[in-house]
Design goal:
Blueprint (H helix, E strand, L loop, with lengths): L1 H31 L12 H11 L1 H17 L4 H4 L3 H26 L4 H27 L1 H10 L5 H23 L1 H21 L1
Helix pairs in contact: 1-2, 1-3, 2-3, 2-5, 2-6, 2-9, 3-5, 5-6, 6-8, 6-9, 7-8
């Protein structure tokens, strides 16, 4: 009983730590934006993938939700919020939460086959889902506005503006960084799992 309680406590502490890392990385991305005007330098999806792999589906969902909440609270989605507040809140929270949940589910499904494959899949799926939900939400709720913004920015269509003006560089960076750093995510996940096993054995 005590062993189970200690394990749950450690999991909560780790989840709190990963949540703090998500918050710090998101604010860091905002602070660095003036230096990288073409895209957002963000590694926030990395701790989400780690949490989803190490702590499970619900933890991944929570970390993704925390990511979305910080985006809203920081004003990073202000341009969309002034147009349709409800749709903005829905899209921002949904894309982060579903990215974390998808990472957790994919890891759980593939863990028995190969943990390394499961971790890498979770890492690369996270930015795909995050960007995919944003893409769908943009077309459903903001297409007229994005068409206007695109024409003002020199793009012929809203689709060109969305892919090359909004998500192109960001997605490539997020996907590429998760892919390149996936071996690190694998090691972090394996290390966390080994700590839990070692502690249980010592009990």
């Amino acid at each position: 009983m005590s062993s189970t309680k200690d394990l749950n406590t450690r999991r909560l502490i780790l989840l709190a730590l990963l949540t703090a890392i998500v918050v710090v990385l998101q604010f860091l991305a905002i602070a660095l934006r003036p230096f990288f005007p073409m895209f957002t330098v963000s590694l926030v999806l990395l701790p989400i993938a780690v949490g989803a792999s190490l702590l499970g589906v619900l933890a991944g969902g929570w970390l993704g939700f925390a990511f979305g909440a910080i985006v809203l609270l920081s004003g990073d989605a202000a341009a969309f919020y002034t147009i349709d507040p409800m749709a903005t809140v829905l899209i921002v929270l949904l894309k982060g939460t579903l990215a974390g949940l998808a990472a957790g589910v994919s890891y759980k499904l593939l863990e028995r086959v190969n943990r390394t494959l499961a971790t890498i899949t979770a890492a690369v799926l996270c930015p795909i889902v995050n960007t995919g939900i944003f893409l769908v939400g943009s077309y459903v709720f903001f297409l007229p506005t994005l068409t206007e913004w695109g024409l003002g920015s020199g793009y012929s269509t809203a689709t060109a503006y969305i892919f090359f003006g909004l998500i192109g560089f960001n997605f490539l960076f997020e996907f590429g960084s998760n892919l390149v750093l996936s071996p690190t995510i694998v090691r972090l996940t394996q290390y966390g799992q080994s700590l839990g096993k070692n502690t249980d054995t010592n009990k």
